[in-house]
């Protein structure tokens, strides 16, 4: 493949590197030029274009990505159609993701033109969540390179979603003087919720003294009738011969591992009894927050083997959170005051209003004011530090409607490529010291400055780490506030893809803020716009 300026007379069959306008016609990036396209470009006075010219042995980006994806062996994975040189692969079931890292590394070492990215090993996933993506970087790649990748893919499984099984679990809680029944009741509720997310079911509970013999007897009984036994000790394990590991051995079982390099979760015990798994839960498992117990439980429920070596290998990435009540807490990292966390607004105003049949909905008048100006004014009236407006379609008219407002403008020449291009253009303008960016759609007349402030306040209360979404009657809507940790992922989006799947894939906390009907009202059609009080302008 050759890339660079190409004389228009030699450009038939070439692939455009950039969106190009020829009079009233607009050709998208990655468009393959036909003879009719060449004539239109000539008529517009264009003498050359920047394009990719494919060699005879090249495969186009979509064909190459599709061929690689088709060569992969996997389980419980749904393969999406190729688009813009990318094939996304999604979970066909909820479960635990496993991947052959050696195969992934070998594929990525073939040539920088061919890439594959996946979720982390043993990541928990929901059905429909994206777990991997194949991406061809240039517009085409040599067929020989694709064949090399196909050979690597052949012969064994590259990744899988190990589906959760509906296991039954019996719980033992030991009791010491002073242990409140309310603590035990809460532990039971938290455990039931933990199991429910993967289809498991808590079938029985036994409360025993914190002694080896009664715990061993209860474990024997529960192992007989359930797939798994979980033991919550009233006192944390302080020795490998303490009550929980000793009770597993007294019952005739085997302790696989006592202690794990995951914090919180250090004091977990894993054993077997009559072919069933027995887990001595660490104290942190009484809380619904993620801890080492979740890592082991998810794998067991997904039918994966967990060995002593597996647990020993969990240290990298195993530092999950600080617990301030420890006698010797780790040195806290300095954090800005939550009230000072800076948020910029990215207002998307580049779309073509295609469902309107001609007029630009962002220029429709609401109480005599263009919709885009109304939305920008409300953004400026919020607690956001800056408002960035992304323009594209009819950019001059949109910018004129914003005249006099203190907004920063971001041009998106590739707006016709889809939503992702506008998101990237806006995020690129966000201030380096901003903790997050709120994505505001230009066509939502019911969202007020107060609503935007509610989202910013919730984001600040989270410490700037959560995704915050507007909602209405429990249904997610817009705007959405993204923490800075997602900015790099936004930069990788392609096509008409928004940030929703990033929120799911990254596993960040999500806070939904009820702001009323405004969260769900956009004006994509004439009927919707007029129903909201707007008047279209030609």
UniProtKB/TrEMBL annotation:
Domain MobA-like NTP transferase per the UniProt entry, residue ranges: 346-505
Keywords in alphabetical order: Magnesium
Transmembrane helix recorded as keyword: no
Top-level division of the source organism's lineage: Bacteria
Signal sequence residues: none
Gene Ontology MF, one: nucleotidyltransferase activity
Pfam families referenced in this protein's UniProt entry, alphabetically: NTP_transf_3 (PF12804)
TM ranges: none
Keyword flag Magnesium: yes
Protein name (database record): MobA-like NTP transferase domain-containing protein
Organism whose genome encodes this protein: Mesorhizobium plurifarium
